[in-house]
C-alpha cells in the first residue's frame, strides 16, 4: 500500500525538508515568490512530466531505465550518467539534512541542559548510521517521519508564527537562481524519486495483471495519462511549498526540534533506500548499501554544510539539464507522445518546447546567478 503513495509523501516532505536552506532570506520578497511560482511552472512541471514519461517507457528505475532508453534511442551512453547523478543527488540531500539535524539536535539538547560533550560531526556520523539502518525498511518510515515532523511544527506554531513583512525588491539573476533552486528541491528534480516511485507502482500493477487477458492490459494502457500522475504531485508540492515558505523561519521549542529532527531521520532513510536500490542494479544490494553509507558518511563528516548546499545546487542542476536534453532532443517523438498520452496535441507541443528550450535556458541562467553569488 505504501508503495502507491510514496511519491505523494515525497511531494509533501521535500519542501518541508529543504526550504530552510534556500528560503529564509527571501520570505518577505514578493518578487521572489513570483519568480519561484514561474520556475515551478516553467522548470519543475516539465521535468516531472519527463520523469513520469521515462518511467512509463522504461518500466525500470532511473539507472536501469536510462540504459534501456539510450539503447532504444541509439543515443550515446553518456546520457546514462543521469542515473548515477540522480543517486548522488539523493545522497547529497541526505548528507545535507543529516548535517543540519546534528546541529539542530545539539542546539535543542543544549536548551534542555542535556547536550553531550561530543562534536557535531560525531553526532552526524551516529545519525547517519541510524538512518542507513532505517533505510532497510524501504517506504515504511515515510508516514512516521511526516507525522513526527508535523507534530514538531504544531509545537512551533503554538509558540507563534513569524511576522513577515512583504515588499517588492529588485529582480536579479541571483534571485532567479535561488528561485530555480527552490523549485528544483520542491519537486525533487534531478533525484529521479518520482521516476523510482512510478516504477515501483508499475511493477506492482504489472504483477497484479499478469493473469489478466491481453484485452484488459490494452485497456489499462489506453486509460493511462501522465497528467493524472503529475498534476496531483505538482499541485501538492505547490501548496506545501507555500506553507513551507511561511514556516521555514519559524523557531521551534526544544521538544519540537527533537521531534522534527527525529522525523527527518525516518524521511532521509527513504532517500538512502532509493540510492541503494539504484546502485544495486550495478553492484548488488550489499555492496550498494556499503557504497551509499560510506559516501554519505564522508559528505556529512568532511564537508561543511554551506558547501553541501553548493554541491547540491550544481549536481542537481546538471542532472536536470541532462534529463531535459535527453527527453527533448534524444528520445524518439513517437515514444514520448505515447508515454505522455496528452489529451491534446497542443499540450504535447507546449511541453516539448519547454523541455527542449525553456528548461535548459532557465537552468543555465540560474547557474550563472549562483556563480555571481558565490564570487561576490
UniProtKB/TrEMBL annotation:
User: InterPro entries this protein is in?
Assistant: SNS_sf
Q: Which UniProt keywords apply?
A: Membrane, Transmembrane, Transmembrane helix
Q: Does the keyword Nucleotide-binding apply?
A: no
The record lists the membrane-crossing segments as: 35-56, 77-98, 118-137, 144-164, 176-196, 229-252, 258-276, 283-303, 309-329, 350-372
Look up the domain of life of the source.
Bacteria
Name of protein: Uncharacterized protein
Q: Which organism is it from?
A: Psychrobacter piscatorii
Lineage, broadest ranks: Bacteria, Pseudomonadati, Pseudomonadota, Gammaproteobacteria, Moraxellales
